[in-house]
Amino acid sequence: xxxxxxxxxxxxxxxxxxxxxxxxxxxxxxxxxxxxxxxxxxxxxxxxxxxxxxxxxxxxxxxxxxxxxxxxxxxxxxxxxxxxxxxxxxxxxxxxxxxxxxxxxxxxxxxxxxxxxxxxxxxxxxxxxxxxxxxxxxxxxxxxxxxxxxxxxxxxxxxxxxxxxxxxxxxxxxxxxxxxxxxxxxxxxxxxxxxxxxxxxxxxxxxxxxxxxxxxxxxxxxxxxxxxxxxxxxxxxxxxxxxxxxxxxxxxxxxxxxxxxxxxxxxxxxxxxxxxxxxxxxxxxxxxxxxxxxxxxxxxxxxxxxxxxxxxxxxxxxx
Length: 319
Description:
The protein is mainly α. About 75% of the residues lie in helices and about 0% in strands. The chain has a two-stranded antiparallel sheet with strand order 1-2.
């Protein structure tokens, strides 16, 4: 229970904040923290637990966003159905990618995932008849819970919090189950795991599929919350880097780490936008420099991530 207690406190605080806070800006930040934390945690299923480091996870995020947006705008269907469709499509795509790139390791797998996300970016930007091309898709506001036309940000906090808890429970299962231990063995030494009879290749494909489905669900909710889907954003490498960065800073292979990393990154980005947003395109370079510096510092001085660093300090103080 001791390992679950910090997560229970984190999610309980997130769920209680809308009851006492009415500030729209603060609630908007909380919604984004939970969305990006859930996306980073979904990335962590493949990148942290299975060791399949991907910089193309924006492909699954974009598939979920487009599924929800297109089903709503073109056929008037519920975005909840779009979420399910996006998760199914992302799972199938993840199965194909996982199977085709199963024997790729290290930088070769990373390059394969980047290439796939960029292919989807080109398709989304050029297929004007279906995706409206680079102009993007504005998501119409249709009031109601079934259509996710919700103006109250407090309700959005609870909706996204439910998704965050689901993703956390998946990670918690990997922390404590036999499959999770097998994935850890594959991550540390795949050849040794294969020699012990661990179905390494099947487990890696399954991890990518689960990660893809959860990432697509995050993309579907994000599209409905923001109200606009832009292919240059949802399929960008920058978005994939955001997922990986939050997981690495928070702690790879840990259930709560990606959410803590998302808190740090989203808070930092919000502050930088408020401080340097007026300088236009130069802001992009500034926050990328700061992101890179933060990653270097974490890898150099806190390689176990925030969760590992906090746990080590707690154990030392208790001792």
